[in-house]
Amino acid sequence: MYTKDGEDFYIVDAHIALWDAREENQRNIHGKQFIDCFYDYHRNLSPESEVWPYEEYLYQGGERLMRDVFTDGYADHAIFQPAYLHEFYKTGFGQSEEASALASAHPDKLTYNHNFDPRNGERGLEQLHADAEKYGLKGVKLYTAEWHGDSRGWKLDDPWAYRYFEACRELGIKNIHVHKGPTIRPLDRDAFDVADVDHVATDFTDLNFIVEHVGLPRLEDFCWIATQEPNVYGGLAVAMPFIHTRPRYFAQIMGELLYWIGEDRILFSSDYAIWTPKWLVEAFVDFQIPSDMSEYAPITLEQKKKILGLNAAALYDLDVPQALRLPEADETATGPRDPSAADPDLVGAR
Amino acid sequence: MTLLSEVEERAPASVPGPPLTEAHVRGVLDVVLDPELDEPITDLGFVTSVTVTEAAVEVHLRLPTSFCSPSFAYLMASDSRDEVSALLARRDDPRALVVELDDHHDSPRINAGLAADAGYRGTFGDEAEDSLDELRMVFRRKAHTAAAERCLTGLLRLDPERAVGTLGEVRLGDLPEGHDREALVRRRAALGLPVDGDAVVLVDAEGRRPDDVPMALRRARSTRISIDGNAHFCRGLLATRYPGSEGDQAPRAEEAFVPLASLTTRPHPAKEQHR
Question: Domains in chain B, start-ordered, CATH in brackets?
Fold first, then answer.
C-alpha cells in the first residue's frame, strides 16, 4: 500500500522476476550479452540514486526481492513473469523453483506465472498440464523471441500455439502475458510486429492478452490492435521508467494509451529487477500530463489507482479492500475508449 | 513544380578526387539510414570508426544493444558496405573493403556474410525466406506517415484556430519551407508519391486520402510518437553502452520533447470539465 496526501493506493506489480544471470549460470556469450543489455536499460533509465552495482544486478535472491518489492516498494501483490532463456542460461534465466517456492511461502503477496513454448509440441503440452497443477497457474508469460535449437522465435498464431491456448482455456489459465523480442523467424518480417496478438485475441475471447511493454517499440501498432479487441491489455513494463528520464515522452505514452485502450486495461509494473517499484510508484502518483500537452486530458486520481493495482487485481481475482475498489469506467468495449478526453481541435498536435 | 529539386541540390557533392580520406567514406555513410529510426547511422553514432590505409578501407559499426533486431542490423551493415563499395568503384580505387558490425549477438554471422558478399539469404540461410525489401518498405511507410504528421502539426501550431478536418486539404506547396517539408518530400519520393506543390499531404503510402481526417492524424501521431520515442531510447542506450559515443551523435532534428507552449496559448475547457 502506498499512501500520499491521504489517498491510499493498492499496488500490484504485474511483472517481476527472480533471475540468476551470474557467470556460473551463463551457458555462453549470449547469457552475458542479455544481462548486460538489461543492465544498460537499468543504468540508462534509473535515477542515479537507484543504480545498482553490476554484481548486485546479476542475482538478488528471495530475501532481497521481498524487501525491494514489498517492504520498500509498496507492493501489495506482485506477479512473477519468468523468461526461460534456456539457450543462454544453464538453469534458465527466471528461477522457477526459487520463485515458485517464494510464492508458496507468501501466497497473499506473490503469484507465480510460468511459461510454455509451443515448439515443444506434444511433450510441452503435457508439461503445461503438469505445470498448471504444480503451480496453480492463472497466467503464463510468453517470450516469442526465445531461442530454441535452430529456431529464433515463434508467433502466437502458429498452429501449435493454438493448441496450447486451447489447453490454457481448459486449465483455467486466463491471463496470457506476451513479450515481443527482437529475433524471430523468418527475419524478413518485423519481429516486434504485434499482428499475431490480434489473431489470437479474436479467436480466444475468453482469454486476456496482456502485451508487455505496451508493444514498444511498436506502440502505435499495439494501440491500434488493442483498441479493436476487448480482451487486450497493456503492461507498462519498460515504459514506466521513462517517467524519470523522458517525462514528456512518458506523458505521450500515457495519453495515447488512455485514448486508445482506456483506463481499465493498463497495468503497472516495475519489471523488477530491471528497475525497483519504489521510485516508480512514487513518481507515478506524483505524475501529471503537462498542461501544455492540451491534446490529452489530465490523468485522474482514479485512473492512477486503477493502473497501479486495481486493473491487475481484477485479472487475478485479488482481494482488494472494499474501500479501495473502484467501478469500471463506462467506456466502449472496442474503439478509442475515451475520445472525449482529447481536445478535438488539437487532435493532430504533438 | 517539383519540390524534390531542393532536396537533390542538397545531396552530397560529386566524388572528390584522390586521395581517399575518412571524410569521404563517412560522407557516403550519411545516406545509410537506420530503417526503424529513420535517421542516418552517422547521426546516431553507429559508426565506430573508419580507417583508410594504403591497402584497405575498414569500417566498424556498433549498435545500442547486443540484441538489436538482426534484420535491421544486417540492413545497416550491408547498406554501408554497398555505399562504400560504390564509392571505391566510382574512384577506380583498388583498396580492399572490410565492413564489420561489432558486439552484436549475430556479429559472427553478419560479418562472415558481409566478407563473403553473401547477400541476405546467403548470410542467414534458413532464417531468411525471401528478402528484407518488404520489411524496409514497412518502415518507409511509417517514416512517411510520421513526416506528414509533423508537417500538419506544424501548421496547427502556426494557426491553433484551424479546424483539424481542413488539414486533409493541405497541399505540399502550402507547407512552409524548411526541414519538415524537405523530410516529407524525400519520404514521398522514396515511396513513389508525387512531390509537386499541388500534391495532397495527408495520404497513405499508396496516395489514398483518408475518409476520417482527424482519425488519420490521430493514428499518424501515435506512429510519430513511437518512432521519436525509439530514437531517443536507442541514442541513450548507445551512450550508456559506449561511454563517449554521445559525442558522435547529432541532435535529432525532429525534437519530440520541446515545450508545447508555442502550440497553444488559449484556454482549454477540456481541462476544467474533466471528470
Answer: 8-130 (3.30.300.130), 134-231 (no CATH)
